[in-house]
Amino acid sequence: MPRLSSLEEIERLYAERGGRNYGEGVSQLEHALQCAELARADDAPPAVVVAALLHDIGHLFAREETALTRDDRHEAVGAQALKGLFVDAVVRPIALHVAAKRYLCCKSPEYFEALSPASRRTLELQGAAFDLSQAAAFERQAGWREAVAVRRYDDGGKRDWPATARFADFMPMMRELIARA
Fold it and tell me: Which of 58, 51, 47 minimizes the C-alpha distance to 2?
């Protein structure tokens, strides 16, 4: 599994692979920026803003053409790549954001109905909606509320217009959330 050791590596990864599209009509980079902007506009804690920015980083390690045909476990890949670099408050919502989608689909039929076509396709690949027992287990995990928030920003970060922020605008916030050994 990949492991990132610096903010510069993350920035370079988005510069090189952030132009990829994964079926939502926006690039990975544009999606990341829109999600982070939504979190920031919502006055989310800095760790949630950074998690919203980086939640799909795991997709950047997979082949672009497989994103809608198999579960690449991007949430686990991304969390593992960032583990050790960021505090757990950033990594945990990233690791749980797919489970948060499955949770929200269980808890709210309206949520499922509002999912984009690509999110509906990937939901099936990711195991479908939780049942009530799985939803209860999800609620017992540390960081589940933050993961739900990230997931909601994820849903909103697929707009046709560009983000106003640049990746570099979030670097100071990311620096503040580096894990200290």
Answer: 58
pTM for the model stands at 0.92
Per-residue pLDDT band at 118 (split at 50, 70, 90) = confident
> E strand or H helix at 15, and its extent?
helix 7-17
Q: How confident is the model at residue 12 (pLDDT cuts 50, 70, 90)?
A: very high
The rounded distance, in Å, linking the Cα atoms of 66 and 121 is 12
Largest CA distance in the chain: 44
Tell me the domains of the chain and their CATH numbers: 7-176 (1.10.3210.10)
Cα dihedral 134, 157, 91, 144 sign: negative
Q: How many angstroms separate the first and last alpha carbons of the chain?
A: 21
